[in-house]
Structure formats: C-alpha cells, structure tokens
C-alpha cells in the first residue's frame, strides 16, 4: 500500500497524527527557537501584534506569546495525558473487574458510576476545584473524577460479553487466576475501544482544562495556561485580538488533532463503526 | 412526523392562550421608556438592614429612604426623611422626621419605624453586616411620632455619614413580611419584579414625598462579565454601566461620543496588607523594603491603564483629611536591597536569591480570582520580586474560599480593596486600630490607636483632620498597609438621560430627579 | 446500545411485554434512590470540606468573630456534619429541599425560577442542532465521498473541537457589537409568555425573546449540530447499505424516495436518542454559555451558589438536574425499546 493510498483511506488519522506530532514538536522545541523566557516581562511592549521578533505578538505583560503558547502546550498536554491516563487505567480496571466478577461488586460499581454520571459534570468539576483549590494537580484530580466513569462503562460491557466466551471458560477450567484471565484475555479485547475513547478524551480534557481556567477555577498565573490567557484575552478582544485568537486557535487545533486521530483509530480498529 | 408537529403547535397555542389573558398589563407598562442599568452582580437581599453587596445597596437606595442622604458630589449629609437634626451634646443626636413620608403600601413612616430599623441592626443575633458602624450607639428612642434620639457611649463624629441607612416598615416586619424579596420602602421607586440572577424592575412612586420621578421605571440587568456589560451598552441593550469595568473598555468607551460619562475619583482604595504576626514582616524595615519594590506606577499606568490613581498614603484625595504631604516609601529597588542588606538579607551563596542564616527570603501573596487586575498585579509583583532575589508563591482563590483565611489573619501579604469609604474613619479605624474589627494583619501601634480614637471623638473638623493625618503619617512610615491606588469611578450612560448627577460611590439616587 | 436495524415500526404488544415494561420502569425509578442519595452525600461532603463557610461568605469582610459565631448558630452549621446531614436527609424525605442561605427563599422556588430559562435555551439550541445536523448528515451520507460529505465532516470536526466559550464571545462580538443585529446579553420575556403575547397581538415580544435566544442557542447548539450530523450520517450510511434498501432500489424506486421514505426514517432512531441525551447534557452543561451571555439559568445559579457556599442551594440544583437527567435517560431508553422491539430491556 503506498503512502498516498494509505493517506486517502486513513486521512483523518493521518491529519490528526500530523497535528499532534506538530504540537509535540512545538511543545518540545518551540521555546528554544526564540530567545525569550516564558516569564520574561517587558511592560513597555505590551499587547504587541505579531512581529518578526515576536511571532505571535506579546501578552499583557509584554511576554512573548509564542513562548507562552509553547509552554502552554506542555501544560495542557501534561494535564490531558495524566488525567486521561489515570482515569482510563482506573476506569478500565474497575469496569473489567465489575463486568467479570458480576454480583454485588458489579452492582456496587454500577451504582457509583451512576452517581457520577448523574452529576452535571462541569458542576462536579467546579465543586471539586472549589474544595481542592486551583492548580494543575487539582485540575487533574477533578478531571479524573469526571472522566473515569466512561471507561468503566465501556470496559464493563466488554467484560460482560467476553466472560461468556468459550476461551474464557476454558481458561477458568484450566485454573487460571481471575487476575490473569482479565489481564491476558479480556483486557486485550477492550484495548481498542478504550484507546479510541482515550484519544477522544484527550481533546475533551484540553477543552475542560481551558474551560475551568477560563472560569478562574483552573490553572493559575503565572502558569502559561491557554485557558487563562484566553479568558484574559476576551477582555481585550478589541484592543488586542491576537491575545484571544492565539490560545483559542491553539485549543481548537489541538482538540481537532486528537479527535481526528480518535476517529481514525476507531475506523481502523472497527471499520463497521460499531463502537460508540 | 406531521402529526407530531401539529400536536406540538396545538400545545403551544393552548399554553399561549393561557398566558394571553394577563399579557396586556405587561405590554402596556412597557410603552414608557424604562432606564436599563447594567449590574455586575445580582442584589443579595432587598432589605437595607441586611444587604451586603453593591447592587443590594444601590437598589435599596432607590426603594428606601435614609434619615439623611449623602450629597452625590461632596458626601455632606443632606436632609431626607429627617428634615433637621441637632446635637445637644457630642454623643446625642435628635432627628426631626418629615411627616409626609409614606411607605409604598400607603402606611405613614414614623419614628417607630426608625427605632425598629436600628434596633434590629444593633441586635447581634440579627446578623446585620455593618452593625460595627453603629456599634458605638447605646440607644435609639422615639421622642414623639416624628422625633428620634440616638445616644452613643461616647462622641462619635462619623455617625451622620452612616445615617443614610434605609428605614424599613415596622408593620411589615412585625407581620413577618418578606422584605428581602418583596421590599416595601418609602423611596422614589417602588419594587415591581425580581428575576433572580437576571433583573430587578422598579417603577416610579407617584406618592413620593419628593414628587413622582420622571423616569417610568428602572430595570437593573445583571451581566456579570465586565466586558460583556460594556459591550451590551455599546450594542444599545443597556443605558448605563459603571465600575467595575475593564481598563480597556473604559478607555474605549471614554472616546465614544455616543455616551455621556463620569470619570472621577471613587471611594475605594486597593492595598497590600502585611501580616505583622508573620515573623518576616514583624520587621518594619523588611516591610518597607518590600513596599519599595512595588512598581506602583507600572501597576497604575500599565495594568490599570490609568483608570485608578496612584496612591500616596492611606488618606484619600476626596476626604476632608487629605494632604499630599504624607508619602509612603518611594519605589526604589536599590534602596530596598540596601535596607534588606542592613537587616541581614543578602545573596550570600550566590544563587541569585536573598538569604539569611541559610534561609531564602520568601513569602506568599494572597488575592482573589474575581478581579483580573488584581491577579495581574500579583503576577507582576511576583516577577519583580523574583528579579530582586525574593521568592514568592501566589495564593489566588475565589473570594469566598479565601475570606475565611483573610478574617482569621491567615496570610502573609494580602492584596485587596475597600469600597464605600465615605469617611476617613471608615478607611482607617477598623482596618488599623489595634482593636479594629478588620485589623486582620494584627497591626498594633498605640500612637495610631490614639489618633484614630481622637478622629472619632474630636468635635471640630480641624481636630479630626489633624488626628487622621497623624495616624496616616505613622501608617505610611511603618507600612502595615501599603495603599496601591485610589480607585477611580467610571460611569457611561446614554446622553438622553438629563438632570442626572453621578455619585462616585456608584449610588443612583439622583435618578429620582432625572428624565429622558 | 447498538444501532437500529431497519424494521417497520411498532409491532403489537402482548400483555407480557407491557407488564415487563412496567416493572422495568419501576426498577429504574427505584434505582434512582441510591443514586440520588449518593449525590446528596457527595455534594454534602464536598461542601463540608470546601474552604470557607456560608457564615463568613454571608457576612463579608465587615464580619466580627461574634457575628460569625452567631450566624453559624442561626444557620445550624455549628453542629457536627453528621447531625446536619441527618437533618437534611430527614427533611429531604418529606420533600423539603430547605431554604437558600443567601436568598432566604425555599430552594425549590429558586431552582424552579431558573429552570425554565435553561430548558428554553436547551430546547432551542437542540432545535438548532437538529435543523443543522440532520440535513447535513443526510446530505453527506447520500452524497458520500463528495465535497458535501467532506464539508460536513469538516464542519462536524470543527464543531466538536471549538471551545464553546470562545465561540460565544466571537459570536457576541460579531453579531451583537460589530453588526448590531442581535442583543448581546440577557433574556427577553420567557418564551411561553412571549407566545402568550403573540396571541394577544404583540408579536414584537416574541421576536424580542427569540432575538435574545439566538446567540446563546447557536453557541450551545453548534456542538450538538456537529454530533448529530455525524450520527445522522453514519446511521444513514448503515441503513443505505441494508438489504431492503437495495431491494427497493432494484425494484426501480427512484433514489430520493428511497432516501426519504426508508433510509431517513429508519436512521432517525439513533439520532433521536442522541438528541434526548444531548438535551440532558445541555440542562447541566450550559454553564459557560449562560455565564457569557448573562442567561439567567441554573448553570449561572450553580456557579453563584458554589461561590457563595450556599449549601442547600447547591444541593438542590445538583439534585434536581440529576433527577431530570435520569428521567430523560429513562424516557430515551423507553423510546428506543418501544420503537425497536428487538432491543431488549436490560
């Protein structure tokens, strides 16, 4: 299969992957392309529009927006990856165990999942941040609390189906431990859908983080959060539109990248589109 | 599908029909032009004894009358419900009430209502938020149907400035009426409707003792985002907006010919408060040094874009006691570092950070999230201090999350503001008297205490001025408070509004005389 | 939940299935009890450990320690949390949600005062979602691989990726401030009242309400439109690939008739169910849009109540939204079953 043909067939995954790779590149090397530090202020050059020295202009403290955006990418990716990573791990294991063991454990888990799903999620996240206080780690905790249930649900339904399969029964007869059966037989079957969900979840996490920061409940200055920059940018929308355009577009492109990748993955793993 | 559409339509029509019957009244009331005013928060309670937020104050100020009314420009108390008053001795006041005032339900307003209002405020269990202002009062008694006597435990000069508190109807309170949600006052506007978090509607009171206002009514619309509120004015959805507004919006609106504006000094200041119980800040020279590093000019002209005024001391320019001759430590990093070196704080290990006995110079700066300018101020301050070898961390939380810590004095350096400081007493006594109720930084200096007490009990204006200047001089020198800015007041409104005088406190009482 | 197979709707139901349905509904409603209880306990727990308490929030910066103590006593927050929780649950059992600390009004009244605004916004934005999403999805599926398809997929991706608060501000700036076509903030008369006015001969009132609704509804609805167009497209594609469609085509039925009468109809089920769920999401998820456009709904109410530490009010808002959300889910599930008998109740 030529690259071109692959690209035609899997365009969304390819474009998504390209965006994500570009983003990782900017996060890693963006700051070293210019000579500014993220907290280097220049109060005499505030709200500068994009120039040859400041590629994306400067912010309300005269800090270089390109540098801030690249550091912001690190921050957003860090929060998204950690929160999605932990919630998918947690949710998958809880869901798989619930589905596999069934009985009271399943009942208990499903009730807890119901409780979390019953919450209006943004209100739950806001209340959690109000309890924990703002900051990256607390945003991660709040996002985990909000996200883990969807993985648990998917994993549970897969475990419910798989445990009736002959090969699982056979493994049980052969005396394999439950943990081993889950890890070796059921988990691999759930990886596809979970991976798709997690990829899409990265986009959701980035939006959620910026929304919380936008409301003042998320990451705080002087951290170069996109959400915070955006929320300040809104106030100066007409005087310095680049200040809200840059983080707004950064968020949108990043989320787009993860969504395209997730969709592509789904088509790839499950061409008939039965998961969702 | 078609069937569904038809039944949905029918449903709409049926429900619509139900509402149609009582529609005409509302539609009719809308024919006269109503003034729409943008507010940053919803009112809390429309009971003047209990209201705590600015919108609550402002709406109550139109629905209720106080014994006095503070002149919008000079803040000098003017007759309102009280036609006149006298002071037989320095701690006793006698007010003669007007006899033609009636509440919106038609009941005459008498001295019993005044007594009941203040008795409730003075009752600790009632929970009136500004009870402290009236705490020096021993008793409030009716001397007749229209005469009331106030007696304080000692001379209390600022009392008249606080006598603009709205008077509530005793008979409604006694009958268990819900004033907080359905206010009944005697003021120029009557309450009509309150959609929580959305709008409050009042209409002109035809029976007002001062004559029926010319405006048909006022609609207070809540738009919490400052920028959105400014945009709503520009889009023609609001007739009047006022502080708090974003600097960028203020500068744009000020240049816009479509709006009349009032840009003046307000009655608030923004300050840094050092926790004097925190070991580092027990040292006056360390406090002075930190204060010297505050880039006051950059904050005022950069972050606030000149909408607030750079402060020189705790005395405010629109207070009688003001003098430009008292100055806080001037901004100088070099002098600050020298002062710190004198106290033993130097970069002895060459890591770029100041240290003493192996410890780095570090502390926490606390403020709240709601005001982006304050958040930016601490962000800038942190950056400047870091450049001078001082390590700080920021504690920025929603106001209601930090308020507990603030009241308990649980902070190191605090950035906050005071509003509605109609008298120097209000700007200093509770904040910096060692027994002051808002002295969370635990500042204690007998000289300041004595001066602030003298300010309350002095019998002449000159005596009060002298007292407050004495206190301010010590405060500027020892910097428990470092006042960053005197807050500006900004109001933008439709030029159609005539005969209106803006009030730098943000009150809108003059709308009772205004017209389109 | 799996996609529908084409099948002509609504076969007859025997007694057993009706009985089955009733027990199912009862079971689902009973399951709501532990869920609601769990929500109460979690919210209660969160609000207990949240920094700051209602008394200080209520009294503000002028408070003295005695005033705060007094207020705590009045509010009952000076008691141990277990006593407070028990009392709260006891009242809840009698259907009493308590009184808002700040507004001094029964919680149920406060929430019901804000709920219509949110429902109205959710309803209209869902309508917009459907009006954009359904035709776009159908067109894309019918013209698979064409520029229309590409455009629809691009639209869907962007619609899902754009942060709602950013979109809101951009729309407001453009349509309300620059063009001055629509009001930027606030709500007109409630839609129901506005319909009333229409019948009383005041169409301008309805127009005003709709003008206020438009920007927030579009902001909120674009995301839904993107989701719906995707679901519609894939459901259509699936149905179009089914045997009976092929049969219809082979019988010589013209293509657009096939599309309308068979494919579209049979693809509606997943779309309707997504719309149902989306409605539930919008009820609790309109927080940001309400915040930006000053829309007086429960989302704003929730933010304010959390900010003020108004414990009973936060409890009430969350409980009522969660309850409605669960009910909508139940209705969607039932709808699913009643339309496609081959989907069995769990």
Could you give a quick summary of the protein structure above?
The complex is a heterotrimer of chains A (276), B (516) and C (346). Chain A is mainly alpha-helical and 276 residues long.
Keywords:
heterotrimer, A: mainly alpha, MetI-like fold, 10 helices, elongated, C: 346 residues, mainly alpha
Helical coverage of chain A, percent range: over 70%
* CATH level-two architecture of the largest domain in chain B: Roll
Helix-strand category of chain A: mainly alpha
- CATH top level label of chain A: Mainly Alpha
Largest sheet of chain B, in brief, is: 7 strands, mixed
CATH topology category name of the largest domain in chain B: Dipeptide-binding Protein, domain 3
CATH class of the largest domain in chain B: Alpha Beta
- Total beta-strand segments of chain A: 0
* Helix count from the secondary structure assignment of chain B: 17
Kindly estimate the percentage of residues of chain A that lie in beta strands according to DSSP. Answer: under 5%
Oligomer: heterotrimer
Helix-strand category of chain B: alpha+beta
Name of the CATH superfamily of chain A: MetI-like
**H/I helix tally of chain A:** 10
CATH superfamily (homologous) name of the largest domain in chain B? Dipeptide-binding Protein, Domain 3
- Rg of chain A, Å, rounded: 22 Å
Shape of chain A: elongated
Low-confidence stretches of chain A: none
**Which architecture of chain A does the CATH hierarchy give at level 2?**
Orthogonal Bundle
How would you describe this protein?
- The complex is a heterotrimer of chains A (276), B (516) and C (346).
- Chain A is 74% helix and 0% strand.
- Chain A has a single domain, classed as MetI-like (MetI-like fold, Orthogonal Bundle), CATH 1.10.3720.
- Chain A is mainly alpha-helical and 276 residues long.
- The two termini of chain A are 29 Å apart.
- Chain A contains ten helices and no strands.
- Chain B is of the alpha+beta class and 516 residues long.
- Chain B folds into three domains: 134 residues, D-Maltodextrin-Binding Protein, domain 2; 104 residues, Dipeptide-binding Protein, domain 1 (Alpha-Beta Complex); 224 residues, Dipeptide-binding Protein, Domain 3 (Dipeptide-binding Protein, domain 3), CATH 3.10.105.10.
- Chain B is 33% helix and 22% strand.
- Chain B starts with a helix and ends in a 23-residue tail after the last strand.
- Chain C is mainly α and 346 residues long.
- Chain C has a domain of 234 residues: Orthogonal Bundle (MetI-like fold).
- Helix content of chain C is 76%, strand content 0%.
- The N terminus of chain C is likely disordered.
- Chains in contact: A-B, A-C, B-C.
